[in-house]
Amino acid sequence: MAVFGSSKDTETVERLKPTRLDLLKPYLIILPALILTIGILIPFGTGEVWSFTDYNLMRPNWKFAGLENYIRMMKSEQFWNAIRVSSTYVFFAVGAELVLGVIIGLLLNRDNLVTKIFRPLLILPLLIAPVIAVLMWRLMMSTQFGVLNYFLSLFDKGLKDFPWAGVADYAMFTVVLIDVWIFTPFIALLVLAGLRSFPRAPFEAAQVDGASKWFIFRTQTVPMLTPYVTIALIFRLIDSFRIFDIPFALTKGGPGDALMTLQVTAYTQSFTYLNIGRGAAYMFLTWIIIYLVSKFLVNHWMKWRSKLS
Amino acid sequence: MATVTTRKEKIIDYVLNGVTIIYFVIALFPVVWVFSLAFKETSQILTWPPQFLFKPTLENFQSLFSGLTGGNTGSSTVDFLRNFMNSLIISFGAVIISVLVGVPATYAIARYNFKGKEDLAFTILSFRFAPELMVIIPIYIFFQKLGLLDTYTGLIWVYQLITLPMIVWILRGYIEDVSRELEEACWLDGFGRIRTFFRVILPLIRPGIAASGLLAFIYAWNNFVFAVLLGGSRTAPVTVGAMQFISADALRYGDMAAAIVLAAIPALALALYAQKHLIRGLSLGAVKE
């Protein structure tokens, strides 16, 4: 400290004593970002209020309806269908992505010509807009001209007529297939980034000690990889639970109610039946579920995040 | 020892490479196939069995650009060039505003200690995870009253929900990586906090701004939900424009494929250019590479 001379030292001490302006400063700096987002938070709050009203776009006036929207929602078949569809979607899509993603990540962590060529291409499906990706798959899924139906017919002639999302029984399979195609790279990329960042020393030490590859994988790789997989899972669980664009672009929720996820149902309530109050109730409930799950997961994530950096 | 490759290990290596190749052939096939459809004539698309070899044509792109899509059917017109320009305007606008308000905000979150800091940061992050429709339905009504439906201003504003969390959460790590000692040394040398920020911090976090801006741009470009409900015929971006090819008649495969190619190329080009920074961005700064 002496190098700076005494006068500067006192200056610093003075500067460290916060004035009222200093205390306000961070808030002032954040203010523009807050104003922009608060303008959006206000409608968000309004939406919650509307969920307790009988607001309908067909009527000019609305009045409070208490919990009626929620009670009617809970009693309706649509709601339980939406819960069922959303949960099935999350379970199969995220499950398959997790297994495949970890395998691909591990496969690409080896250094040779094959992995060198393919590693940069891994991210590709992730960069295409989900609606555009759905359109791509729709172009390939046609009983008359579809290339996927052609490949299927090579295995079994009857499969040429495989209806994909055209039939309720196969709609979930089709939408999960597309979701898995888009988002498996997300998990694989994070797993790969994790594997690449590991320190080499413990692995080499274990190898010198003559430990088997399986033993090293179990005792070193798995625990070090866990935070990366956790982060990838948080993102995928939340994003697939609130999925809208993929089922919407595929069938608008059909055939019947086969792909009526919570958000697609809320969309139909609000914009087809113009029943804003009911739609808001669906959204508020989705939000609460996501909030509780993500609060729990993000708390863990913050812990992992500080561990990683 | 590790350096000696036995016969068995070699075989395992071949098998693993084989599995890798199979995965990528399957994963990349849709892209290759749809891109090839974009360069086929309608008659070559609507055949059975599908044609794998063909003479490429630019017919589909020409009809897209002339605004007269559908060729012989030609009943409805989809002005895809306009969709493309809309996507550019909205995505650029949203990212630029997010960077302007987001960089100072992130600096405050990363460097100041103040009450409610983490709550603010979490609020901004929560936009990333909120169900979009929850916000869109009320905004729709508000925009209707304010006359902001189907305007660039309205969409750029709403797109802050996509771009701002990305900028803030990705940049936070980059700013925290700049050593505090360096910053404090500058203050002691008589630089003010503001001058230090512009002369020292900003140049150091420039790669972070570029990476987060790029990723925010890609997500804005790829968004559909906000645009389909709050936009309209004047402001519809490529994601909404491409969807219109389904409704009219199902057989405009060539136009649709060409539209898909045009909609996908900007994001793909940008991403391949900045691949390295994207992983940190995709996890909002949680995973560093």
Keywords:
heterodimer, A: 309 residues, MetI-like fold, 14 helices, B: 289 residues, mainly alpha, 2 domains
Explain the overall architecture:
The complex is a heterodimer of chains A (309) and B (289). With 309 residues, chain A is mainly alpha-helical. The model of chain A is unreliable at 1-13 (pLDDT under 50). Chain A folds into two domains: 15-50, no CATH class; 68-308, Orthogonal Bundle (MetI-like fold), CATH 1.10.3720.10. Chain A has helices at residues 6-16, 20-50, 68-75, 77-108, 113-118, 124-127, 130-140, 147-155, 168-197, 201-208, 213-241, 245-251, 262-272, 276-308. In chain A, helix 11 packs antiparallel against helix 14. Chain A is flat and about 75 Å long. Chain B has 289 residues and is mainly α. Chain B has two domains: 7-66; 80-282, MetI-like (MetI-like fold, Orthogonal Bundle). Helix content of chain B is 74%, strand content 0%. Chain B has helices spanning 7-38, 42-45, 59-66, 80-111, 117-129, 132-146, 152-158, 160-177, 180-188, 193-204, 206-222, 225-230, 238-248, 253-273, 275-282. In chain B, helix 3 crosses helix 14 (253-273). The radius of gyration of chain B is 24 Å and the shape is globular. Chain B starts with 6 loop residues before the first helix and ends in a 7-residue tail after the last helix. The chains are: A mainly alpha (309), B mainly alpha (289). Chains A and B meet through helix 1, helix 2, helix 4, helix 5 and helix 6 of A and helix 1, helix 4, helix 5, helix 6 and helix 8 of B.
Distance between the termini of chain B: 29 Å
Could you list the spans of chain A in which at least 5 consecutive residues all have pLDDT below 50?
1-13
* Mean pLDDT over all positions of chain A: 83
CATH topology of the largest domain in chain B: MetI-like fold
CATH superfamily of the largest domain in chain B: MetI-like
**Quaternary form:** heterodimer
